[in-house]
Amino acid sequence: MRSTGDKITLEPIAEPHSQPVRVPDSYSLSWRNTVSEYYNKKTASVLKKYGPGPLVHFHTGLFSQSLPLVPEPNAMRARLVASQELLLDRAAEAWNADRNFRGEVLDVGCGLGGGSIYWASRYGANVTGVTIAEAHLPLVSEFAEMAGVSERVRVLLVDACEVPTDRTYDTAVALESSCHFSRTKWFARLAKLLRPGGQVCIEDIFWRRPGGTRVWDNYFRTRSGSMAEYLDAAGAAGFRLADRVDLSAQAPEFWLQSIGWIDATLDTGGLDREELQRLQISRRTHKQVYREWLAGGCERLLLRFERIG
């Protein structure tokens, strides 16, 4: 698969050349270690693709229209980063950030801190970021300092379902991270962390039918759930669904643009063997994720839950 003009030619789907990752039946310690190892190893490539900072995101973006691909990696990178920022802007609007992101915010699965810095700088939130990747810690602090919000952003190395209850929060937010851990345990923990009336804001990928997120889950070390599963887990912990926005129609374009960045990077040459192999695997899998979206087995949603009581 290569870019031809402003289009991408897709050959028939093949299995990823990377070793498949078996998703366990339960969210065990070994699974948590698998996810932690994945993100620690991924840090350098995330910086290369979405850096240099201080706002570095590791989630998909939002495109309002299809755009022709260009052969310059830096131009494609800038386009992808802008799409990630557009997603945050859209999420902020849907979640009424002017009201809900003004106090204490828990950023679950904060990655390199792009979202944490966004909420702190745009809305004055005091943000506690949570990650299980040790490699993220110094970078979040460094980027927060660069952005001038170091006093409003702190980061914890802890499992999302084991966040200390020594402080309470007004809002918890999870951008494409709730797919990594038990929703039942997570909502139960949030019931102890959020004040009455507190908000849980989620942007993630959900399956519409079993197996609809197979490629996504295998490659990104996730365990996507259905909308029904989230509703059950939230309800059992004392939360109600307050808002739902469907962004599925705008999801596939990100993958085409991301493939365009990979192709432009490969075409520059000068890559060592390891980086060349990594990008080839990434390109192959991106194509499969794109086809998975076209098959209609998954959906991309913005959800907002409210703690009852």
From TrEMBL:
One MF annotation (Gene Ontology) recorded for this entry: demethylrebeccamycin--D-glucose O-methyltransferase activity
GO BP: any one term: methylation
Signal sequence range: none
Highest taxon, organism lineage: Bacteria
Assigned EC number: 2.1.1.164
Keyword GTP-binding: no
Enzyme class, broadest EC rank: transferase
Positions of the Methyltransferase domain: 105-198
Keywords, sorted A to Z: Methyltransferase, Transferase
Protein name (Swiss-Prot/TrEMBL): Demethylrebeccamycin-D-glucose O-methyltransferase
The species this protein was found in: Mycobacterium simulans
